[in-house]
Design brief:
The complex is a heterodimer of chains A (276) and B (359). Chain A is an all-alpha fold and 276 residues long. Chain A has a domain of 160 residues: MetI-like fold. Helices cover 76% and strands 0% of the residues of chain A. The two termini of chain A are 25 Å apart. Chain B is elongated and about 75 Å long. With 359 residues, chain B is of the alpha+beta class. Chain B has a six-stranded mixed β-sheet with strand order 6-7-8-3-9-10, sandwiched between helices. Chain B has two domains: 224 residues, P-loop containing nucleotide triphosphate hydrolases (Rossmann fold), CATH 3.40.50; 124 residues, RNA polymerase II/Efflux pump adaptor protein, barrel-sandwich hybrid domain (OB fold (Dihydrolipoamide Acetyltransferase, E2P)), CATH 2.40.50.100. Classes of the chains: A mainly alpha (276), B alpha+beta (359). At the A-B interface, helix 8 and helix 9 of A face strand 6 and helix 2 of B.
């Protein structure tokens, strides 16, 4: 069976002898350096804030509203992102069609583009006839909560699509072929065999979508603005607080985001991926 | 049982061309060919996994060409077995019955029966990642047999195993086929594997079936020099054929001359390829006094002796530039007392000289 990027259990490399230990130590040194760098930033943030700033963050209704908006919009974004990522990842992995390479590259564009460009492009799009027609049907996005989700999906879905495609690339198509000789239709083989096998990759894709969606700021400022109690998400709060000079409150919100993100990521890894 | 008529399929730069084949009911048929010859593609056509460009595939008299894989009545064991890694052995084997919505009790009973038959009951709750190659093969076989297919298609079912396990599992495959009476098509590139299991064999070469026959027919009478090389013919010599009474005289390049029976030979004259299998050459330290009519008798000296355990292979230089490979049983070799450097006599009966057209 072909190893899959996200579907195979991890293996560990044996560490024996002086050379083995030195090699492992040099590899792990980079891990340590990177993690220590991030921890240093975190500690600096924590040491800068005071208890009043934390209390204000926990009490302020506008920050609670922003937290709630961030939570539900990013959750909806994950659902919509995976709804696209799973069939798209499968199609790009299994089927070859004219222009496959072009389509595959277009899917990756949001990964390369600065997120701000997505916000600007959306703003311009909704000034076109098609955009105006969409808004006229009642589906309003500009300066609306729906716009937050739209921005987040466009910016983050590519990460999920890429992760899911890599997972399907690693699953031997012959496994589905066997399922088809054992009574499955093509769709049955997908749902009963390929999809359960891709579970880990889909979870990883979901994590990537969520982390990107939870943290985006630039396109939201352009497309939905920073209206308190309406389109303000946590990254917007950080911007608003630091722009009026309340750096300790902005940092307290940042730490809240960090803690929430860490809890969510660890929970998904433990529950979804079975990692410890 | 299986009838393939004029099958054609082009995939990128490779093509299966004009394949016609008949596999008899309850037969163990082997598709033998080198890597890249199109065996797997052909078996995938039988499965319905590759739609064919033209031709027809019939199973049990029914044209299955337009049918989906699930409707063809086949069991399929692909290379590397393709077990479902997220299911236990029990659930792997029961997968087909679950798709048929069989009752849980009957699924359990049938899976238990098959696991018993293939000796994998103790693995029921294990996942495929925890199985050895041989265990995986048995589980894949049980999974393919659970729906009682009319035809069992095995794509290199033992090639991933070590030689010892391979031999033992090949014998088990043959026994299983005899007990279940399932028509079986087995793809492999290993000649020894084919000899253990095959009732008949089809040689696949560059997308075509170039010869069909019993293993002995393919071994002794290959249809071409390419097939002869593939079945390890041993001695292949370019020659010029000329009629000589009831014999065909074969003057080989290098000064050696063989005789073949004319009625066995399609080629009457001209440039040909001569095949003499190493085990069909009689070796003696002295020239035979009254050889049977038509026997080719050659003189030579032993260049090299290679002891392979049960067999001994000798390279014997005959004439100016001809070296013949001779194969003897270990006991026969020991009693002959022949050693490297000895002068020997070689005798080949006319029916053991096989003549093929030059490619």
């Amino acid at each position: 069976m072909n190893p899959s990027l996200f579907s195979e259990p991890r293996t560990t490399a044996p560490v024996t002898g002086l050379h083995g230990r030195l090699f492992a130590a040099s590899m792990l040194a980079f891990v340590g350096l990177f993690v220590l760098g991030l921890l240093a930033l975190f500690i600096a943030d924590v040491s800068y804030i005071n208890i009043q700033a934390v209390a204000e963050v926990l009490r302020a209704p506008e920050i609670r509203a922003a937290l709630w908006l961030s939570a539900w919009t990013s959750a909806v974004t994950v659902a919509i992102g995976l709804l696209f990522a799973v069939p798209m990842g499968y199609a790009l992995s299994r089927y070859r069609f004219p222009g496959h390479a072009v389509v595959d590259s277009i899917v990756d564009l949001p990964i390369i583009l600065p997120p701000l460009v997505v916000g600007l492009s959306l703003l311009v799009f909704f000034q076109t006839d098609v955009g105006r027609w969409i808004e006229a049907t009642g589906m309003k996005f500009v300066f609306q909560c729906k716009g937050i989700v739209l921005c987040q999906v466009l910016v983050s879905a590519s990460f999920g699509i890429r992760a899911v495609k890599l997972t399907f690339d690693g699953i031997d198509p012959r496994i589905e072929h066997v399922a088809m000789t054992l009574g499955c239709t093509r769709a049955g083989a997908f749902f009963r065999v390929a999809l359960p096998m891709a579970r880990r990759g889909i979870i990883v894709g979901g994590i990537l979508i969520w982390t990107r969606a939870f943290g985006i700021f630039g396109p939201l400022m352009v497309f939905v603005g920073a209206v308190r109690f309406r389109t303000e998400v946590l990254p917007t709060t950080i911007y608003l607080e630091q722009s009026v000079g309340r750096i300790e409150v902005a940092l307290a919100v940042a730490i809240l985001m960090l803690v929430l993100a860490a809890v969510a990521l660890v929970a998904v890894r433990i529950v979804g991926l079975g990692q410890r | 049982m299986i009838r393939i008529e004029q099958l054609n399929l082009a995939v990128d730069t490779f093509a299966l061309s004009n394949i016609s084949l008949h596999v008899k009911p309850q037969e163990y048929f082997v598709l033998l060919g080198p890597t890249g010859s199109g065996k797997t593609l052909l078996i995938e056509c039988l499965c319905g996994l590759n739609p064919i460009d033209s031709g027809r595939i019939c199973i049990d008299g029914v044209d299955v060409t337009p049918l989906e894989p699930r409707s063809r009545g086949i069991g399929y064991v692909p290379q590397d077995y393709a077990l479902f890694p997220h299911k236990t052995v029990r659930n792997n084997i029961g997968f087909g019955l679950e798709n048929r919505r069989a009752a849980r009790t009957s699924i359990r009973r049938e899976v238990d029966r098959l696991m018993g038959q293939l000796g994998v009951n103790h693995l029921a709750e294990r996942f495929p990642q925890k199985l050895s190659g041989g265990e995986k093969q048995r589980v894949a076989l049980a999974r393919a047999l659970v729906l009682e297919p009319r035809v069992l298609l095995l794509d290199e079912p033992v090639s991933a195993l070590d030689e010892q396990t391979r031999d033992s599992l090949c014998r088990q495959l043959k026994q299983l086929q005899k007990s279940t009476h399932t028509t079986t098509v087995h793809v492999c590139h290993n000649f020894a594997e084919m000899l253990v299991v095959a009732d008949r064999v089809g040689i696949v070469w560059q997308g075509r079936i170039v010869q069909v026959g019993t293993p002995q027919e393919v071994l002794q009478r290959p249809s071409s020099a390419q097939v002869a090389r593939f079945v390890q013919a041993g001695n292949l010599l370019g020659a010029r054929a000329a009629a000589d009474g009831q014999w065909l005289r074969l003057a080989c390049h290098g000064g050696v001359e063989f005789r073949a029976a004319r009625q066995d030979v399609q080629t009457a004259a001209g440039e040909v390829v001569v095949m003499v299998r190493p085990e069909n050459i009689q070796l003696a330290s002295a020239r035979p006094e009254n050889p049977p009519p038509g026997t080719t008798v050659l003189e030579g000296s032993v260049r090299e002796v290679v002891d392979l355990g049960s067999l001994v292979k000798l390279n014997v230089a005959c004439g100016a530039a001809v070296e013949l490979l001779v194969s003897l049983g270990k006991r026969e070799y020991n009693s002959s007392r022949i050693a490297a450097g000895d002068h020997v006599s070689l005798a080949v009966a006319p029916e053991d000289v096989h003549v093929m057209q030059k490619p």
